[in-house]
Write a structure and sequence with these properties.
CATH topology of the largest domain: nicotinate phosphoribosyltransferase
CATH architecture of the largest domain: Alpha-Beta Barrel
GO molecular function: glycosyltransferase activity; nicotinate phosphoribosyltransferase activity
CATH class of the largest domain: Alpha Beta
Shape: elongated
Number of domains: 2
Largest sheet: 7 strands, antiparallel
Keywords: Glycosyltransferase, Ligase, Phosphoprotein, Pyridine nucleotide biosynthesis, Transferase
Pfam family, one: NAPRTase
InterPro entries: Aldolase_TIM, N/Namide_PRibTrfase, NAPRTase_C, NAPRTase_N, Nic_PRibTrfase-Fam, Nic_PRibTrfase_pncB, Nicotinate_pribotase-like_C
Helix content: 40-55%
CATH superfamily of the largest domain: nicotinate phosphoribosyltransferase
Strand content: 15-25%
Catalytic activity: 5-phospho-alpha-D-ribose 1-diphosphate + nicotinate + ATP + H2O = nicotinate beta-D-ribonucleotide + ADP + phosphate + diphosphate
Amino acid sequence: MTPNDPLLTDLYQFNMLQAYLDGGKIDTAVFEFFVRRLPARRGFLVAAGLEQALDYLETLQFSDDHIAWLRDSGRFSAAFLDQLARFRFTGDVDAMPEGSIFFGNEPILRVVAPLPEAQFVETRLVNILHFQSLIASKAARMVLAAPGKQLVDFGLRRAHSAEAGLFAARASYIAGFAGTATLLANRAFGIPVFGTMAHSFIQAHDDEAAAFEAFARSRPDDLVLLLDTYDTEAAARKVVELAPRLKADGIAVRGVRLDSGDIMALSKSVRGILDAGGLADVVIFVSGGLDEDQLARFRSADAPIDGFGVGTSLTTSSDVPALDCVYKLQEYAGVPRRKRSVGKATWPGRKQVWRSLGRDGRITGDMLSTEDDDWPGERLLEPVMRNGRRLQQPPLAAMRARVSHGLDQLPDGARRLEEPSPCPVAIAPRLLALTEAVDRRLAAQDEDV
């Protein structure tokens, strides 16, 4: 299986695909991906995963092996399976660029394509966009909680799959992390990688100081030594004693890492030991079950910590492990469509989002309306794919800059970790009028039944 395997979807996508093709339902459809509402602890979200979504659309096709397997399953007609050999995504996509700040009920991606194509891609698009946006949003909160600190993703081993770990490294880097411990992320995306040492390396040696020296001489570049295998303060003193011998051989201790215990108190005592030993330039890096709330507490206490490795809480987004996101039909054959289910109603038609800023450069609110409306402010959705081919592929650096700029634009209420106040999203009169017109049409259809 590969990440873009067309069988990596729900069975009902194939069921509908055959029914659409059998019934000749191949007119143009418009689907939009959005998050219905923000979780209680989120004042904003960060759009991420678009590059992988476009890659999936651009490479979508069925191999002879796929078709043979589907044929052997006995679930589908021979005529349908013959059509799959020619099946490709040929549509258009408009989206918020990766790194955009967005709020509830705002489409961050719109697909316009023949109905069978636009429907079939639903599951994988939701899968990709949901996860990376979820993790980028979590990471952005950590960036806000620890301004000026080096943040590194340590979460691969606790991620819910290998792909999740890799994509979490990407999403967190977009959101402002300095890098990741996941080596493949460096090869796949060019993300900086960081690595120190494990407790097992210390335990494998009979003497802790000997373990430090052996590691330093084997891996002298960007040397960071782990202090808390036994007695953290004693280990710090051993580093002070070792550092001059290493320096004589051109090896500098760049940092030490704390991974357990009373981190607040230990960071202060270790800082004192290092400073007294002439190692004021050695940084203190902390890991071990951290989240944004702990980062904020370290900041408020002015703890002498220079960087953090964040794992489980990042790659699982432990406080908010899922977003209420959906991919819904908004138009078919030129006719606006609307879902009216209780609690899950949608706004019909092709839509655009306009963003307004105050005199201070902060976001005052967004306007949601039909695509052909005109409002002051920045239009957030832009063309990214036409006729099944992507138009651009911006570098990760541009995405990081977009997140940084977007976070600067957030009002203080939206930036808060606890009980945040998201920016308002207003519904334009034209969209309200269209919704009323769709409801009247649906009511008339019900009367005719």
